[in-house]
């Protein structure tokens, strides 16, 4: 093969560029050294300490795609995927705070923000301000555009009323992308995205959910009672909020795929180490072919999930269509994560069922992958639509 022919061969998906390797390794090191010692305490107290969030900012993980002129890391979407994967291998709750900040909030600001919005918000998002993305409500989850929150125009802006539910980062965030309908008679074409700050009059954060998994990640209700939002804080155009939501979530679910790949890898690593140490019938349980086959299947499912996630992310960075691939990667990665973490609990035996070992937590954490940013059924609807037209 000539050099030109060799260059024409596409890179294998899992071969990372030099900058990607350096970035991933730095996140891995941070996850091992700084996050790992806090995992159990954060799960038990259902809280991520602000000092850890500050370290995420200091390392550039909260503004990965923010251009350098706004104080960000000037990276690509793929870097965000690598960060979410590496953090989630240690703690998927820390993975999701970084995921929402980058793949939903900053992504929406970059894509839909006016020059004024970008100049006002991006430097803050890259340096100290946590963001949240508020679409879901009590009665509108999968059918998100049936949202009941309302906006009304005033002389100097808008006033919002309604309640949002399940909002990730609700406790930590100071900026919220809130979707409300300005013209209910126009159906989803009345939905508008607003940038709401914690300190705006009429805005408050309500009840925090007590959850099965990703317990350290805050999931909160938001209350909008005549919440006043200046005109300059419309994100994108009035009536185009449905587009902001759809397009952001299409990308966001690749991040959830990365969260699931990371946590499955974390569980598999724990299981591999344990089966080599644990002895039964006079030998390490890793020597039983039954155990080897279970691990081999888990590793294969995980590799397939990673390939789907990396492919979707690389398609997105290449500016190519990725809608079906993003849905497939979340669907498969979340199922793989459930299978792999469940196997890890089984292989730890009785110890796997206790809080003294890390796999029961990852098993609990895996469940959310099939629910948020579109349930598995909704991902399958997207995939089927692509197939059937
Ligand atoms: C921990 C956590 C964090 C979250 N973070 C956020 C956030 O930051 N921002 C935000 O806006 N939302 C967030 N959500 C909300 C999340 O996106 C919704 O819970 C999710 O979209 C499902 O909506 P739902 O809970 O109302 O379930 P429903 O829509 O009521 O679904 C219930 C069941 O019905 C099935 N179903 C519904 N419609 C169909 C259909 N057409 N065909 C087949 N099956 C169907 C679903 O697959 C599911 O199994 C979060 C949720 C959780 C639990």
> In percent, how helical is the residue content?
40-55%
Tell me the overall shape. Answer: globular
Based on secondary structure, the structural category is alpha+beta
Number of strands: 10
The termini sit apart by: 41 Å
| Distinct ligands, ions and cofactors found in the model | flavin-adenine dinucleotide
- Spatial strand order of the main sheet: 1-4-5-8
Averaged pLDDT: 97
Rounded to an integer in angstroms, the radius of gyration calculated over CA atoms is: 21 Å
Please outline the major beta sheet. 4 strands, mixed
In DSSP terms (H or I, runs of 4 or more residues), the helix count works out at 12
Order of helices and strands: HHHHHHHEEEEEEEEHEEHHHH
pLDDT under 50 segments (min length 5)?
none
What is the strand content?
Answer: 5-15%
Characterization of the model:
This protein has helices at residues 3-8, 18-35, 39-45, 50-58, 77-88, 92-112, 115-127, 241-277, 289-317, 323-347, 359-366, 376-388, and strands at 131-134, 150-153, 157-168, 175-181, 191-197, 203-208, 219-230, 234-235, 279-280, 283-284. The chain has 389 residues and is of the alpha+beta class. A four-stranded mixed β-sheet has the order 1-4-5-8. The structure holds flavin-adenine dinucleotide. Flavin-adenine dinucleotide binds next to strand 1, strand 3 and helix 12. Flavin-adenine dinucleotide is lined by residues 100, 133-136, 141-142, 166-168, 211, 219, 368, 371-375, 377-378.
